[in-house]
Amino acid sequence: MAIESDVLVIGGGLAGASAAIEAARGGASARLVTHKENTLRNASGLIDVLGYHGSDEPIVEPFEAIPDLPDHHPYRKVGVDAVRESLALFDEITEGLYEGGHTETNALSPTYGGRVKPTSRYPKSAAAGLASRAEDTLLVGFETVTTFDAPLSAERLDSSVPFEVRGVTIPFPGEFRADARITRLARALDADELLDRENRTGTREALAERVSEHLGDAKRIGFPAILGDEEHREVRETLEDELGVPVFEVPMGPPSLPGMRLEDRLYEALETEGVRVESGNPVVGYTADEGRITAVSVDRGRREIPYHADQFVLATGGLVGKGIDSTREGVFEPVFDCHVPQPEERYEWFHDEAFDDQPYARFGVAVDDDLRPLDPEGDPEFSNLRAAGAVLGGYDMAREKSASGVSLSTGQVAGRNANEDLQ
Amino acid sequence: MSDAESTDEFEPVQVFPESEEMDLRPGADDCYKCSTCDSECPVAAVDDEFPGPKFQGPEQWRLKRKDDTETDDSVMSCSNCMRCDSACPSGVPLSQMHNTARGSFVENQMDKLSREYIRNRILSNYGTLAWFGSKVPRLANAVMSSSVVQTVNEKVMGITAEREFPEFAEQTFREWWSERDGATVQSDEKRVAYFHGCYSNYNTPEVGKAMVRVFESFGYEVMVPPQKCSGTPMFANGMLPDARRAAETNVAELSAAIEDGADIIASCTSCSLSLRQEYPELFDLEGIEDVSAHTYEALEYLRIHEDLSGALEESEVDPRKFAYHAPCHARNQGLAGQAIELLDGVEGAEAEDVGDSCSGISGTYGWKEEKYDTSMKIGAEMFHHMEEAEPDAGMTECPTCAMQMEHGTGYEIRHPLEVIAEALVE
């Protein structure tokens, strides 16, 4: 009856947020429902469009490579202009937080594992670390932050880039538990907590002091991405002032501070656009009438509450976000039970070598050019349902490095088309 | 049997002995250690000694499989805000694990004659205390607000002297209800049973009255069944036997109301969360699943079953700006945006969300002398945003969040139901 909106978006990651923002900008009343904390906290914060296709050589110009992708690839469904537009929207939302919009060429960002990765947009905090700058680099790790081994990372990087990379591991200044969360360390930098009340030395200054003795000839310094949460800009600036060289963050795994900063920015944008956001409960089913979805049901603990809308966007994520699930019998999309193309034989889901080109990585719903999921006969499952982001099949985001670009572009197109189709 | 046949009969290796009680093993196994819960935990954010929900839940559960391992006492520093539940991307039942660990710690490791135990027992049985207080409200208010009593409370009991004890109403909600002879609307089709909880009965009966007026204006027959504490403060203090005793009464009485065709309505979001989630997670009582499935927060219920937004669009209240704080327990039920969305439609009312931080009081937590500073540190972000919003009043659904908001900022705090009642009824 009463929980209504024009457009209902299911999923609160990059794809869902883009869809809801675009629909709201088009004039629709938009609502976004998301089950749990979204997976942006598990994401590096780098925005990849297309890093690899068909070879081990990184792609230099992703937009030029898009037309070479197979027909069923999500980028081919929305077209290269839509991908450009979605990045323009991203740039607008993340103004001051991200860089990379000045060029269509991929940047090469160092990873915490000591590789370089082609990416289209990167947090401002990572900018000084790009491989294209070709400046001698010092990587600094912390004894208790075991997920970043600076000497190992430096050794690997050093062997593949045309500049010198050294790594050191130091204790983080201050007294913390040996298993202190990285968010705790980030907050100590945010607040510039005083370590020494007499001399009034703050965490930032103390950190700079510890690093300075290792600086040597290095022209820039990289840290694991824990340099502050809300005050990250100030933290970095203080360190740069104290050390006299540019400072950058190396993107990390979960919980990822760059991912959390991006999440904050996206949710601010949703609020600005008037999107109603609800989290805490999953969408578990739907009602439909003559091929149109009339409502989805939200599971609020042992009862299902209908959410009505005119148009729906499915942006629940892939295998990690649980938008695609599997049993030993098959792979399925749990909300609408949209068709997920897959080999009948389970042994054809995968190849034996872990890093092979894995069929399961491409599992997801197939869509038409309007991004409507298709049934086994190739007809739209529902006339008012569109899918966006990792729930889509036909591409291997991990291998291609295309996750964020696909989410942003298909999200925006799904939101726009939903808005245009309002009855 | 050949090897090929046996592959489909996969059985996980039994690493741990079969659990005889609640089986929390699947929950522990679902944790992939992304630490999202730790990064969302308001206590861990300000208390370096607190190891965080990932430890309290899955890690401690595993450690405890060994017979000689005791529950770490840090579990008593968890405030049971339950934010970790909605943070976990992998569906680990963290609060259930915490409640279970805390219950076991209190039962097996806590000295029953210790000041902490006695204090916690009194705090978690607030309803009993309030029952006495409400018999002589003026005297009780005068006594509880005397600085001598506050000092004694702190020194002897470990209850902070920093807070003003909440005032008892001169007439409880139930007294008002029987004075007015119960329901003024009778209906066989639309019937709700009101779970008022302790606080809106003894301290803020105006919230209960607003609930009754709003529901009656939509044609509902309101029932007020006998009831005990929802258990929220007992869970948070590990007093599971007390909570279970209260649950036995509540489940029996509420089941009877459901039998009479009613759904259960609560105005306190911790009460509704407890009946919905903690009851079936922690107790196995006849009818408990049914009670869970029929329980709703008051405005949630109207939003689902009536055209509440439509009715509010034609309504008006005295122009006021509210700084709204969503209680963690409302957030867990997916209700965090509800009050703002509803009030946006009411002419005159302006509501600004003061952000997604925890208020820090978490029921009885912020009343404990040793937890008071932690509680205020957690609340600092909310106080700051409230002051920035420059409202005429604060607003929240949770009575203890309201105490904290008032304590930290001095603003008077209203319940959304009171404003909705003003819009629709008065």
TrEMBL record, chain A:
Molecular function GO terms recorded: glycerol-3-phosphate dehydrogenase (quinone) activity
Annotated stretches, region: Disordered: 403-423
Descriptive protein name: Anaerobic glycerol-3-phosphate dehydrogenase subunit B
Entry annotated with the keyword Flavoprotein: yes
One Pfam family, short name: FAD_binding_2
FAD-dependent oxidoreductase 2 FAD-binding domain ranges (all copies): 6-406
Gene Ontology annotations for the cellular component aspect, listed alphabetically: glycerol-3-phosphate dehydrogenase (FAD) complex
Enzyme class: oxidoreductase
Keyword vocabulary terms for this entry: Flavoprotein, FMN, Oxidoreductase
Coiled coil spans: none
Gene: glpB
Transmembrane segments: none
EC number: 1.1.5.3
The keyword Acetylation is assigned to this record: no
From TrEMBL, chain B:
Domain of life the protein comes from: Archaea
EC number: 1.8.98.1
Annotated segments matching region Disordered: 1-22
A GO MF label: metal ion binding
Domain 4Fe-4S ferredoxin-type intervals: 67-100
Group of enzyme by EC: oxidoreductase
Cellular component GO terms held in the UniProt record: glycerol-3-phosphate dehydrogenase (FAD) complex; membrane
Keywords, alphabetical: 4Fe-4S, Iron, Iron-sulfur, Metal-binding, Oxidoreductase, Repeat
Composition bias, Acidic residues: 1-11
Gene: hdrD_2
PROSITE patterns assigned to the protein according to its UniProt record, in alphabetical order: 4FE4S_FER_1 (PS00198), 4FE4S_FER_2 (PS51379)
SUPFAM superfamilies, sorted: alpha-helical ferredoxin
Protein name listed in UniProt: CoB--CoM heterodisulfide reductase iron-sulfur subunit D
Natural source organism: Halalkalicoccus paucihalophilus
